[in-house]
Design goal:
Elements (H helix, E strand, L loop, with lengths): L8 H4 L3 H28 L5 H18 L1
């Protein structure tokens, strides 16, 4: 049996088909996360009433936990 020096023991137990999808899936998740961050930062330019209420709740919780 020929063992590839770069493949760890745990990777040898995973079938080749599953092993080859891991980098593509990780890359796709990274792009999706970056896109969501970009969309979220652009979409929230103005604070609405719910945003202001949420900030007031956050401030109240911070004040309560700080003492």
């Amino acid at each position: 049996m020929k063992i590839h020096p770069r493949i760890s023991v745990s990777e040898r137990s995973v079938p080749m088909a599953r092993r080859s999808r891991r980098p593509a899936r990780s890359l796709a998740l990274a792009f999706a996360f970056a896109a969501l961050l970009g969309i979220g930062s652009v979409a929230c330019e103005q604070d609405g009433p719910l945003e202001e209420a949420g900030e007031e709740i956050d401030d109240a919780i911070d004040d309560a936990t700080d003492g």
